[in-house]
Amino acid sequence: MNMEIKRSVCPYDCPDTCGLLIEVVNKKVIKVKGDPDHPYTRGTLCPKMVHYEKTVYSPERLTRPLLQKGPKGSDNFEPITWDEAIQIINERWQHIISEYGAEAILPYSYAGTMGIVQRNCGEAFFNRLGASRLERTICASAKGYGWAAVMGSTLAPHPDQVLHSDLIILWGTNAMATNIHFLQNVRVAKKKGAKVWLIETYETPTAKVSDRVMLVKPGSDGALALGMMHVIVRDGLIDEQFINEHVQGFTEFQERLEEYTPEKVSELTGLKSSLIEEMAHLYAKSKAPFISLGSGLSRYCNGAMTVRSITCLPALVGAWAKPGGGLLANLSTSSALDTRKVTREDFSKETTRKINMNQLGDALNKTVAPPVMSLYVYQSNPVAVTPDQNMVIKGLMRKDLFTVVHERFMTDTAIYADLILPATTSLEQPDIYRSYGHYCVQKADAVIEALGEAKSNWEVFALLAQAQNFDEPYFNQTAGDMIKQLLESPTPWLAQVDLEKLSAGYPVELPLPENYKTKFKTPSGKIVIFNNKEEEPLPKYLKPHGDNAQYWFVNSPSIYSLNSSFNEQKELVEKKENMYLLMHPEDAGVKGFSDGEKVSAFNERGKVAFILKITPQVPAGIVVSEGVFWLRDCPGDRSVNALTSQRLTDQAQGSTFYDTKVDVESLE
Ligand SMILES: Nc1nc2c(c(=O)[nH]1)N[C@H]1C(S)=C(S)[C@@H](COP(=O)(O)OP(=O)(O)OC[C@H]3O[C@@H](n4cnc5c(=O)[nH]c(N)nc54)[C@H](O)[C@@H]3O)O[C@H]1N2
Ligand SMILES: Nc1nc2c(c(=O)[nH]1)N[C@H]1C(S)=C(S)[C@@H](COP(=O)(O)OP(=O)(O)OC[C@H]3O[C@@H](n4cnc5c(=O)[nH]c(N)nc54)[C@H](O)[C@@H]3O)O[C@H]1N2
Ligand code: SF4
Ligand SMILES: [Mo]
Predict the structure, then answer these.
(1) What's the 3-state SS for 229-276?
(2) For 449-469, how does the pLDDT look when each residue is reduced to its tens digit (9 = 90+)?
(3) Which CATH class is domain 551-666?
(4) What band does 1 get if pLDDT is binned at 50, 70 and 90?
(5) Which of 18, 50, 174 to mutate to test the pocket of ligand 1 (most atoms within 8 A of CB)?
(6) Atom from ligand 2 closest to the CA of residue 564
(7) What fold does the segment set 142-329+515-528 form as a domain?
(8) I want to staple 413 with a disulfide (CB 3.0 to 4.6 A). Which of 175, 245, 383, 402 is the partner?
(9) Residue nearest to atom 6 of ligand 3 (CA)
(10) CA–CA separation, 6 vs 1, rounded Å?
(11) May I ask the CATH architecture of the domain 3-56?
(12) Which protein residues have their CB within 5 A of the ion that is ligand 4?
């Protein structure tokens, strides 16, 4: 028996970016474990990844290129060779380019893998082709915008900071599902005496580790922050010295805050005014309050402004200057690796149009010039994860649309493809990873050979480039060459780490400058509360959009899946039991619903069947579903995104998944 243990990295879109140890016996992965030597994730994994080998060796893996021989969306795929597949794509694209121009081709990708090279290499190819560009704002662009409007490019606090905090606010984050290693830190801090609050729309599993749970009306968190700051200023609880030294525009803000009285904010948020007063006092009087800000509250039409308002809170009480204080919203390590070497903006001969990924439905169905005639999907599952599912499916059903999907599984999107290309998993391809939840960087070699005829993103784009006769040396390299290039031209940040260790596949931590928490990287060097570059120079409350329907519809992550990934593991799908719609007993009583009954949630965009779960975890007026299911596991023929809309956030063109309302009726 030839047993080896190899290091790798979890490739999924998760802030934890865990270090992995892969046990390989006779070239086969036997076991996946956490790497105890990883400085941040220290050997533990979430329930989704403990059996990653079941994803890698799933009998459902796609292993050969497949051509659709029947009508779109039917199960009439037949295997073809890679040569044939590349030739078909090339011919169709040449034809489309000569008739409509290359902008009629649209790439669609997001975060199947977070590896810098495999994730981003498609951009070089599509830039060179002159295709339409995709505005990739499905996740947290409004959150990033709101943070940056106040803090510029200030470094985010190290997640271990929270260990020194005495008041931790988990604000709109279901960390039990989405950020388990941070939550581990929270537990440690709690043992040392810290208080933990959860500000949410319903009692998520994270409520179990929280001392207090404050449930607000969806989309109203900006008002809560402004109300807390009203009380902090009114009652003289500000840190004057910190404000004088580090804050721009406090005087103007003070005036603005006057209107956000606890009574008004109580009406907007649904929290009692006495609670808002108490929260403000406890926040301002704690020694080192730390806010962990999730993305959920930014996925509303007021999302950027909400984040901007909350980001002002630590400035008013000087939390940044205290060990353990601050706010963690966006941890960016993007400057550590020169991603431009991978994406090659310079390959674009001219600036081509941008299409917002949240509005794929419109892009495929509405009259745009040139029309989208070909869609190339990789590392994304738009039918499942993109808002307004009915419009996406309608577009994919267009007979004149040529759709290619490069995938590991027969996803809800792949089924609508004209041509499917089989993709490798992260263990079959090399890459280099950075994180958005901590400061480690790690390189990972391929651990096993590709299954069947599966190919990595890098390999497929190299073949497509060859077929197009692109002669740039870029396209003749391997992914390994590209990783080497990134490491051989280190950025100022990477230059400070042990490159030998990094090249050998060990995790290394990017060093943080001394006193980085009070080095504000804004033009004035101060925290910008009054920002005259903004249309609205001061934070204020903006209303969410909602729909003309009865219940807010919160459709948040599940512990057992990640976006639409992991639904290939039967055991994980079973853990979710059913595609539930959570509803408060009072609402269910009014409707005469009983627990376990099949219901339909609907609005002007679509109808989705759920199994009703009656629970006081959810306040009246809100219904909740957790996780994005594959259609085959749904009680009906549509999943959650048939209800969500293509509307965008107030700034940064982000998604507004939770800014959705529905009506509910029985299906029995
Ligand atoms: N297990 C698991 N892990 C994941 C993911 C997953 O799907 N499953 N997804 C990954 C991805 S892509 C991302 S971006 C991150 C996201 O992870 P986080 O940043 O932690 O954010 P979410 O969990 O998306 O935020 C959703 C939470 O916000 C709450 N929420 C919704 N509206 C509001 C509101 O108006 N106010 C408040 N206070 N709360 C609100 C929801 O109830 C939900 O619990 O997680 C990653 N990790
Ligand atoms: N209703 C609702 N919808 C949501 C959300 C929500 O909270 N509620 N969350 C949203 C968020 S935050 C995000 S980030 C998006 C995420 O959306 P996506 O990034 O599209 O995420 P996944 O659903 O995980 O789909 C990734 C696909 O990539 C494939 N894949 C993995 N690795 C590779 C690879 O190396 N190459 C190729 N070619 N394919 C690969 C996987 O098999 C998988 O099917 O979803 C959004 N959708
Ligand atoms: S999904 Fe997140 S928590 Fe789970 S193993 Fe991957 S990085 Fe770690
Ligand atoms: Mo995301």
Answers:
(1) HHHHHHCCCCCHHHHHHHEECHHHHHHHHCCCCHHHHHHHHCCCHHHH
(2) 999 999 999 999 999 999 999
(3) mainly beta
(4) confident
(5) 174
(6) 23
(7) Dimethylsulfoxide Reductase; domain 2 (3.40.228)
(8) 383
(9) 10
(10) 16
(11) Single Sheet (2.20)
(12) 139
